Amino acid sequence: MPLPFEGKTHEVISVREETTDEKYGVYPEKRTIEQKIPYGFVLLDKAAGMRSKSAANVAKRLLSVLGVNKVGYSGTLE
Amino acid sequence: MLLLGGKEYVALMHLHKEVGNDELTTAISKFEGKITQLPPVRSNVKREYRQREVYALDILEVSGKDVLLRAEVESGTYIRKLVHDIGESLKVGAHMSELRRTKVANLTEKDNLVTLQDIEDATYYRTEEHNDKFLSYVLQNMEKAIDFMPKVWVSDFAVDSISHGSPLAVPGMVKINDFEKGEMIFLSTLKGELIALGRALESSQEAIKMHKGIIVKTDSVIMPIGTYPRYIKS
Fold first, then answer.
1. What residues have CB less than 8 Å from B42, skipping those under 6 apart?
2. Within this chain, do residues B122 and B205 fall inside the same structural domain, yes or no?
């Protein structure tokens, strides 16, 4: 059984036809690693017994070499 | 924002005394559907009874006093509590000895799940060997994590003002998904980039009929200011 939200697709209603200027921004799938960093997330399989907060801190330290300075997390509720 | 999505867990329940299979199945079936839970003493929410939905609860394996469960639950359901309550209902008592989240919203263990060691390796490959292949596997686009939310696609001219925290008004709206008033909205560029998350002040039905006014109030901005050009009134 799918969870609420799982595999959820929405109908798209077009208000008007409009194109985007290729000069600005970048399509998510075409991002370079540098561009992906501020838009990145990691699906982390942390070790048992480790707190989510500590895992996020370790991840932050590991990623800091890439210039990452902000890490948040959404952890498990027991 | 993944917080909002449903969750799937695999939990190990340790019964304090062995029970028969039929008894176990009957007890567990009582915990499917709407349940009432009191959050644990040590929790980050107010301690009062609240209703949550258990979408599915199955027994995967039984070995003596150990029962492996799979639970699909609404966001905010405490599994430790659920296991405890099953134990009470069986009159033998039980506690949760292991827990693993296997799904959240639209993400599963098959979606590039990595370990801390993988992150370390990926950064090593990038900095020491100039190989980004592993890092691009580890690091996923944030848009994918919140794919399940309804979107509003915003015209290029309105992107910068949203990244400053301004709300989205009718003229900036190009395409929309269905949404209800008050729902959390993914404000997207026409390229599919996440600009910000917002709250719908109108339903999509209303929004398409409007000629002016605010549709989405901006909550948290992700896109850096200046990614798109500033709108100059002509």
1. none
2. no
